[in-house]
Amino acid sequence: MKKSDYLKDIVKHIDIKKHNVVPMVEAMNDMAFSARDLARAARIYDMMLKDKNCSVILTLAGSIFSAGLKKMVYDMVKNNMVDAIVSTGALIVDQDFFEGLGFKHYKGWWHGIDDNELRELHIDRIYDTFIDEDELRVCDETTKKIADSLEPRPYSSREFIEEMGKYLSKYGKNKESIVLAAYEKRVPIFVPAFSDCSAGFGMVEHQWNNPEKHMSMDSAKDFLELTKLKIAAKETGIIMIGGGVPKNFTQDTVVAADILGYEAPMHKYAVQVTVADVRDGALSSSTLKEASSWGKVETTYEQMVYSEATLAMPLIAGYAYHKGSWKTRKSRNFSDYLNKESVKVS
């Protein structure tokens, strides 16, 4: 088989605006097990959007954009349903920014596949999704180009991702990009482990070529900025897709604020969608009630949904979208606030 035989059927992103799932989700509330859990999670998300004092933080992990959920998050940003994002680098760079440059993800398969053949053809596989490795290298090179253009100093990932949004505003080929929408809507995006993605290769090359004077990523600055956001926001709700670093990073802001001498309240609302098994004690599967023991999350409005994200999130986000509570929300413009804070410090 040729490369073109594999890279032919494009992954299409689901459009939550086209499917009014409110009646279905409300009917699921009268069921049991995961259906009722999901319905309660959807109601809690809608409560976040109705609460005029609540700022919503979305955390993202897993390969959900390559799987067709990119437009869902794009619509959440564009329609003022989220005020800040904390994510893995793969989602923001390898999948969203990658598509913003005009590239695509392709429908593939996992059964009976010869991964050695894929490697020889420069095709990368994520379960049943294919990506062109040669196009990913272009993405790597673009992040290097952005790094080369910046003043040599430590940056938070939020600052660098703003530069990525600025780049897409000028040169992007696909305008349905979360990075671009967040840049335009002044929604900050944090990627605490930024080098653990395609951008990391660009950063390595940038620093290799500029050993004396180069830009760098400061994860402590990330944590400080997100903590400042929590202190300024006061009441917050979290929507967590998957777990990992974005989940813990966001929950920890309550403790960090306390260490800095501020009484930031625990996250008032919290929803997590995960397939991780709670029994192994891992971070991704730790319950929201467990987080309360650490002083991070209140237990009044919290809900775990044990489901794969591509099944659960179109229902949860679609319910909140069609309920329409976002229509009366005001933009927080946290990117502008954090930029002012950075100027103040310097």
- What is the CATH architecture annotation? 3-Layer(aba) Sandwich
Run of helices and strands: HHHEHEHEHEEHEHHEHEHEHHEHEHH
Mean pLDDT: 94
Q: Give the end-to-end Cα distance, rounded to a whole number of Å.
A: 56 Å
Largest sheet: spatial strand order: 7-2-1-9-10-11
> Could you say which overall geometry the principal axes of the C-alpha atoms support?
globular
CATH homologous superfamily grouping: Deoxyhypusine synthase
Relative helix content: 40-55%
Question: Main attributes?
Answer:
346 residues, alpha/beta, 16 helices, six-stranded parallel β-sheet, Deoxyhypusine Synthase
Your description of this structure?
This protein has 346 residues and is α/β, with parallel strands linked by helices. The strands form 3 sheets. The protein has a 6-stranded parallel β-sheet, sandwiched between helices. Strands 3-5-4 form a 3-stranded antiparallel β-sheet. The protein has a two-stranded parallel sheet with strand order 6-8. α14 (288-293) links the parallel β10 and β11. The chain contains 16 helices and 11 strands. The protein is globular and about 50 Å long. α4 runs parallel beside α9. It has a single domain (21-345), classed as Deoxyhypusine Synthase, CATH 3.40.910.
